[in-house]
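From the methods appendix. Each design record in this collection lists the tokenized structure first, followed by the designed amino acid sequence. Records were kept in a plain field format so they could be parsed without special tools. The example shown here is representative of the layout used throughout.

RECORD:
FOLD TOKENS (472 positions):
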């Protein structure tokens, strides 16, 4: 076990080594198709940077994709886009340095089947629109917008990440149609599956699907094809308003989404039309009720599953290490949609040891270091304390995941890897790590691969099964 200065330790260890002078590789954050993602921490400043490592000897097919991703990230400088700091090549290994998103993942803020408060959804959506507007103005199409690829900074502001599927659609004023089928099926626009397609309406469609998940906590369909009953009802404008997620939404929200999710790309709202829509310009009171048009709003109290112990919305100077443990990819569907197979998605949490290490490095952060560890855990929603000891907890968790039809195995250091398939029959993998903290045991769940909403559904089921040992 790796002990820390404040008395907590991780069951699966920690430690780091010097990468370059003054910087330590604190932890391996993930292992993807083409390499590793590591956390890099500066001894003097406490600065944390995400470092992507790709070995071209082992993965020669990654060269073109990585080069394209780096070229695109180099030209992007916007508060809503994850920053690119630079790259370095040593032999056959490419190191890519990116901003470390300190506030977690957008999908972690969405309560399955509930969503979030309307004011929160509006805020995130408008920030997403700002980032996508910037991309399109620079001639860049993201092509895989979804909550798993949207990170948050320490102030809860959006950072669009993962440009592995991005491409240039406009150069020197000349636009081109795209023909590569890529993205994630529930979020992809219908025209992408039949190609060629225009870049901007396709990204806007994905933003509309994201807005549905923010407001309702669920996806409207599995894929935008006529073989999907839910999508067909939407396309043919039949009785879709009587089913979820649509019946959860207000008239004003529906009026916006109907125009964003117009089947014909030319009929879809433009970016400016979206920003001018009445819903996007609502002003919310402290009770988060915009007007009487939202009869369901009072029922949508957010069912938080995080450690909201301090009661504080913001805690000055706290650091969350919430980068990916593994690359998130989807399998190829029968319609031939080409999914991501290169690069990494910086969107999953790392080990608590790194959180503690980062907060202890900088001697000038006395106030931050004196804050209780409980307070630093406020924003993460997929973890809880238990009253049982380690061995008994592992037995209970293994029994719970087995009851749900999942398979599991314990890896090096005791981290449990749980595998299953979601409701769309796609692979879902998440990690369970036990962390001893000041005499208490924390159970930390983190998504490795698959849909964030499905991961949270599984987490809630497991937590409910263990409710007799959860330490409230």
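DESIGN:
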């Amino acid at each position: 076990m790796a002990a820390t200065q404040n008395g907590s330790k991780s069951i699966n260890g920690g430690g780091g080594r010097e990468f370059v002078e003054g910087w330590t590789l604190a932890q391996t954050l993930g292992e993807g198709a083409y390499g590793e993602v590591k956390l890099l921490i500066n001894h003097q400043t406490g600065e944390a940077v995400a470092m992507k490592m790709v070995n071209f000897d082992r993965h020669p097919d990654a060269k073109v994709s990585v080069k394209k991703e780096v070229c695109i990230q180099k030209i992007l400088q916007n508060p809503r886009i994850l920053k690119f700091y630079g790259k370095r090549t040593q032999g056959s290994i490419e190191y890519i340095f990116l901003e470390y998103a300190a506030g977690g993942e957008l999908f972690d803020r969405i309560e399955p089947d509930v969503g979030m408060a309307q004011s929160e959804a509006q805020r995130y959506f408008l920030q997403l629109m700002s980032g996508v507007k910037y991309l399109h103005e620079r001639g860049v199409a993201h092509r895989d917008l979804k909550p798993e690829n949207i990170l948050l900074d320490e102030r809860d502001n959006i950072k669009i990440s993962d440009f592995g599927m991005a491409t240039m659609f406009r150069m020197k004023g000349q636009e081109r149609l795209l023909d590569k089928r890529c993205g994630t099926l529930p979020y992809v626009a219908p025209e992408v599956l039949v190609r060629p397609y225009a870049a901007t309406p396709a990204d806007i469609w994905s933003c509309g699907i994201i807005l549905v998940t923010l407001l309702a906590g669920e996806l409207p369909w599995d894929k935008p094809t006529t073989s999907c009953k839910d999508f067909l009802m939407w396309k043919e404008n039949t009785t879709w308003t009587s089913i979820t997620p649509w019946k959860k939404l207000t008239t004003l929200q529906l009026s916006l989404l109907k125009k964003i999710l117009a089947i014909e790309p030319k009929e879809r709202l433009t970016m400016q039309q979206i920003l001018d829509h009445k819903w996007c310009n609502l002003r919310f009171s402290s009770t988060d009720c915009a007007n009487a048009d939202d009869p369901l709003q009072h029922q949508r109290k957010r069912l938080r599953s995080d450690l909201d112990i301090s009661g504080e919305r913001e805690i000055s100077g706290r650091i969350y290490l919430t980068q990916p443990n593994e690359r998130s990819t989807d399998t190829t569907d029968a319609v031939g949609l080409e999914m991501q197979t290169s690069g990494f998605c910086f969107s999953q949490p790392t080990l608590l040891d790194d959180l503690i290490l980062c907060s202890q490095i900088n001697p000038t952060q006395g106030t931050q270091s004196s804050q209780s560890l409980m307070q630093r855990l406020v924003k993460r929603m997929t973890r809880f304390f238990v009253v049982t000891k380690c061995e008994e907890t592992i037995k209970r968790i293994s029994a719970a995941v087995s009851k749900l039809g999942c398979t599991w195995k314990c890896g090096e250091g005791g981290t449990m890897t749980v595998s299953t398939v979601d409701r769309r029959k796609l692979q879902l993998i998440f990690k369970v790590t036990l962390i001893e903290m000041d005499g208490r045991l924390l159970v930390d769940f983190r998504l490795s691969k698959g849909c964030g909403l499905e991961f949270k559904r599984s987490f809630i089921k497991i937590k409910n099964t263990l409710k007799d040992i959860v330490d409230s």
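APPENDIX NOTE: The longest helix spans residues 118-137.
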